[in-house]
Amino acid sequence: MKPGEYISGQKALIACFLLIIGFMNSVALADPSLSIHPASLLYIDFVSVLIIAGYLFYDFRRKNAFLRELESYDPGGHSSGQGIKHTYEEKWYLAILTRHYRSYLEDLRMANEEKKEWMEYMTSWFHEIKTPIAVSRMLHEAGEGSGSLEEEMDRIEHFVEQALYFSRLNDFNNDYLIQETEIGKIVKDALKVHSKAFFAKKIHLEVRFEYIEALTDKKALLYLFNQLLGNALKYTPAGGELVVSVLSKERLITIRDNGIGISPEDLPRIFEKGFTGKNGRELFSSTGMGLFLAKKIADKLGHEVRIHSERGVFTEARIHFPIPGGATYLGLEAENHEK
To answer: What is this enzyme's EC (predicted)?
Structure first.
């Protein structure tokens, strides 16, 4: 910092000092009872100017030293000016700088983590999507029936949709459209999409519909329900039973199957990214992303997803729609938790 720049920043202080000097001189000259000789008054003024000049010189050097320290200041380590005794104002500046630096590091860490997650997911996704593409090509070359080919194409479409939702997860709030929606209609649409799977595995479907309207995004809720219903179909053996209920009083969608169930040790981790559990590793190919995305989307929408299961007996997935104005309404609880 140059002397001119420093003086420019001290204009208010200098003006105040000159006003005080001028006031004192006026009082001394106007009041004959003080009997101060003009030469003495000039001497007092001269000494006062020297004192303020000395202060400004000291303050200029101190602030220059502080600015040089800031240039090499490392909020995460040791600064080069550790021997300097700081004023409260300077400590405050350093504290703000440190706080912003830590916030920047946290944002950088999260960005790197998101990039790593995306790369890991895409690597897994490329491996997963190769299988239905290869099978589709074999079916086409062998001239097999269109049913099997359509099933593989549905798998490809599911993987693509999953990748799209994963890529938009952090900008989800900019993409969804919240409006009053009849929940039963979304459930019926999803059941129609999976109708071929029900017939192919001869699964007995029981439905119980009660009228509910809730604030939600239709596409996101449809994806969420499809994910839970798809899991139920995947892990329910041929000839099994599946009950889908829409309950108005409880404000719930439930999907209950009598499939293989989930191991007790796996149940607490089913919503973790990349977690496949025993079922995914031993019985079916799984990316471990489906329930992770379902939970994230539900949190963004302000819905609650819970899964109860007993190994070899049943699995029940629930989507709960909180009452408007509640803590989890429209994802407020999730957003506050992230902050």
So the answer is: 2.7.13.3
CA distances from 43 to 19, 37, 39, 305 (A): 17, 10, 6, 84
Tens of each residue's pLDDT in the chain, 339 residues: 788 888 888 889 999 999 998 888 888 888 777 778 788 888 888 999 999 999 999 888 888 888 887 777 777 665 545 556 777 887 888 888 888 888 888 888 888 887 777 777 676 666 667 676 777 767 666 666 555 666 666 667 666 776 766 666 666 666 678 889 999 999 999 999 888 889 888 999 999 999 999 999 898 899 899 989 988 998 899 999 999 999 999 999 999 999 999 999 999 999 987 788 777 666 555 667 788 888 988 998 899 999 999 999 999 999 999 876 544 444 444 444 444
The pTM score is 0.57
Produce one character per residue of 222-246: b if its CB has 16 or more CB atoms within 10 Å, e if not.
bbbbbbbbbbbbbbbeeebebbbbb
Burial class of residue 255, CB neighbours in 10 A (0-12, 13-18, 19+): buried
Q: Pick one of 3.10.129.10, 3.40.50.10840, 3.30.565.10, 3.40.50.1860 as the CATH number of 174-338.
A: 3.30.565.10
As a whole number of angstroms, the distance between CA 213 and CA 15 comes to 69
Contact 243, 210 (CB under 8 A): no
Write down the residue that tokens 């420019």 correspond to: 8
Look up residue 62 and give its two tokens. Answer: 């101190």
Q: What is the DSSP letter of 310?
A: E
